[in-house]
Amino acid sequence: MIPFSMRAVSMRAMSTGALAVAVSVPAGAAALLTPELAPGLHAQSRADLDASMQGEAYAYATYSLFADQARAQGLPSVQQLFQRTAAAALWEHFAKEAELREVIGGNTANLRSAMKDEESASHTMYPGFARQARQDGDLIAARLFEEIARDQSAQQAASARALEVIRTGRGTIPAPPSVRPVTVRAGAPKVRAARTRQSLSTAQHSEAMASARYAQFAKAATAHGNPALARLFSVTADTALREHFAGEAQLAGAVGSARENLGTALNIEQYESRIMYPAYARQARAAGDAKAAELFTHNAKTEADHARAFETARTQLP
Question: What pTM value is reported for the model?
Answer without folding.
Answer: 0.88
